[in-house]
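Chain and conformation:
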Amino acid sequence: VRAGGQARREAAMARGRAGALLSAALALALAQRCAAFYLPGVAPQDYEHGDVVGLKVNKLSSTKTQLPYEYYSLPYCQPETIVNSAENLGEVLRGDRIENSLYQVSIGQDEQCKLLCKLTLNDKSAGEFEAKVKDDYRVNMILDNLPVAMVKMREDNGKPIKTYERGFPVGFMASSGQKGDKAQAYLHNHVRLTILIHKDIETEMSRIVGFEVEPFSAAHKQGKSGALSTCDPEKMVYVSHEGEPQLVASGKEVIFTYDVLFRLSDIKWASRWDTYLLMTDDQIHWFSIINSLMIVLFLSGMVAMIMLRTLHRDISKYNQLETVEEAQEETGWKLVHGDVFRPPAAPGMLSVLCGCGVQLTGMGVVTVLFAVLGFLSPANRGGLMTAMLLLFVFMGLFAGYTSARLFKQFKGTEWKTNTLKTAFLLPGAVFAIFVCMNTLIWGQKSSGAVPFGTLFALLFLWFGISVPLVFVGSYFGFKAPAAEDPVRTKMIPRLIPEQAWYMHPAFSILIGGVLPFGAVFIELFFILTSIWLHQFFYAFGFIMIVGMILVLTCAEIAIVLCYFQLCAEDYNWWWRSFLTSGSSALYMFCYSAFYFYTKLDMSRTTSTALYFSYMFIVSALFFVVTGTIGFLSCYAFVRRIYGALKVD
């Protein structure tokens, strides 16, 4: 018996050890699996000493023209075969054209005055370089998915802070300094590439955590032996800003060279984008948020006073009236209960705009949420725009449902026509303007022109996915029973009394848009700067907070003005509630015009047309979103207050 018990104990101990080993192995496998998990496209790349890394070139960009061009549209040194890197939809729409180059970088090995190529400028090539220099074009390069940047030192509270400026200029304009001399174009034909690497002590592997550049203009002289007299590391002669610059003129020989310097850095790979995205003006963002919160608190106080004091007193008093004569003596919002739910003029258009507004709002909310969680990192170029397009397409389901529900509430019957308008009105208008602008850009031979293949892809997303989803949503929305109005609508419309001047629709609508715009205009400045001045912007946390403040502001200002309108016995609140908060888009467009004339220096008619066309699209979309928020808030408010009345 003792032998049998001992055998069973040994067997149990063996099973326990096996289970422990299996658990440890599983835990180790899971730990390795978790340690190796990275978001797609942003996994780190480890390099050994001497590994060759190809440097890629991107578009030439300018804040003066807003027309990007391919790098090899200028006669730079080209490889024998130009290979385009894989691009997503967002990259193509942004005008990115990523290609290989002759620049080669060997990890850990410094290079001095490495010859790239030489060429002799003719009239055409000299004119092309000079035009790009005059328009302040900048060269963009990419190494290990990091964009090249120039170092700019700033002071913050007396402390120097390193910041980055995207790319480097093609050249510069300068004169000899003598009176009457015109400014001439000089070319940056030498670049000093400083690559910051973080080395793992245990494995001796390196990761690239910084990519900096300093451009030079050097009139290189090449001797008979091929050596450069202006740049010779053996003789301790290096390129500097004090030497003779390279003039852009026909017949001039241009020699392109570059340096590569490696510097060890304490920056971890996960933090390598911090310098690019560094904000030195975060106090302004907090000031904007506090300013907006004051507006929200003021409006919230007014809404609370209306709901808790005035409305509660009015409803209690009205419900206690015993005779019809006493009820007829009442004035204000209670008298229009028989007309307040009378369908508005153009009910189909209102339902279509609200459906599109829900679609855009859903797209914006999900996009900002994903960006805050880090899924739309700037390391994934074009990811933000691609995500917005796909989300807009899939949100067509909610657009169709909302539009159909409202259209049925308005006693509409032609749901198929209403669905077609929802699917084609707003996207069709935006696409038409986009195609017109794309034609202008194509005429300028810019890489910003969207190819026909990409246009076909956009049409497929629209017709193949978005339109069917709108129809599916409309089918279920129209099939669902319409919400019953809290009060009956009378057969004969009530006469609206003459209104005071401050209750005139135009005046109240324009006043209503001031506060929602005031809640966002500071963040709008940073967004416009990011888009049109090509600066990095990743303050999506601030955008999320300001977005929530915008929703509250639009809802509360629409409710307050709707209450004042109903108190004046004007029951035509449907469209006015939409236009009240939507009018903030008018102020946005006016502000974009102010920004254009005060902050930008666009020199071409095409660039000006591009700016105002795209800002018109942005303002129109903002109008639809804010108008939808105001309308839906007022709809819920009106149903709530009239549902509390006891009406025979």
Confidence is low (pLDDT under 50) at residues 1-41, 323-329.
